[in-house]
């Protein structure tokens, strides 16, 4: 067996699939395509649209099925594509940001019982007076690299 044949055998088979929502075409392994189709009722959905469907489920305010959330997202995508190209891309960007902001403000907030990053108290830190330690610079990388 030559090196080229071994490389061809090591490469997994890929298939080209188009997203049912936005039409984006991706190359994926058949196993991945099968898993995504099982998750979304037989439709292949790209990662971005899959995240939008999950967001739709979270924003619904009541329990909705993945199929219903997918249907909502697909209708949103169709209406977006049917709108045609914008006359002024600046206006389109502003409208998109406005919609994104409104959607994020309407989304329920996740509550945290503790901060996402732990904080140290002065006693644990070992520092006195509450002053923050700073990192001292020992030297320049460039001065040693030039030698």
Key traits:
two-stranded antiparallel sheet, DUF1677 family protein, mainly alpha, 147 residues, DUF1677_pln
Topology order in helix (H) and strand (E) letters: HEEHHHHHH
Detail the poorly predicted runs.
none
How many individual β-strands? Answer: 2
- In helices, the fraction of residues equals 40-55%
Rounded average pLDDT: 77
Termini gap: 49 Å
The main sheet orders its strands as: 1-2
Oligomer: single chain
Strand proportion:
5-15%
Gross geometry: globular
Helix/strand class: mainly alpha
Number of helices: 7
Radius of gyration: 25 Å
Main beta-sheet strand count, sense and barrel state? 2 strands, antiparallel
Region (Disordered): 103-147
InterPro entries: DUF1677_pln (IPR012876)
Organism: Canna indica (Indian-shot)
Pfam families: DUF1677 (PF07911)
């Amino acid at each position: 067996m030559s090196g080229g044949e071994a490389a061809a055998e090591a490469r997994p088979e890929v298939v080209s699939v188009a997203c049912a929502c936005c039409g984006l075409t991706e190359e994926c392994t058949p196993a991945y395509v099968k898993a995504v189709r099982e998750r979304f009722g037989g439709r292949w959905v790209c990662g971005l649209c899959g995240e939008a469907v999950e967001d739709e489920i979270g924003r619904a305010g009541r329990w909705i099925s993945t199929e219903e959330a997918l249907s909502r997202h697909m209708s949103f995508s169709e209406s977006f594509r049917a709108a045609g190209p914008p006359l002024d891309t600046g206006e389109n960007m502003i409208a998109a940001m406005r919609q994104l902001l409104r959607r994020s403000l309407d989304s329920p907030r996740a509550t945290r019982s503790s901060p996402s990053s732990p904080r140290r108290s002065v006693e644990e830190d070992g520092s006195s007076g509450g002053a923050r330690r700073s990192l001292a610079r020992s030297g320049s990388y460039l001065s040693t690299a030039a030698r």
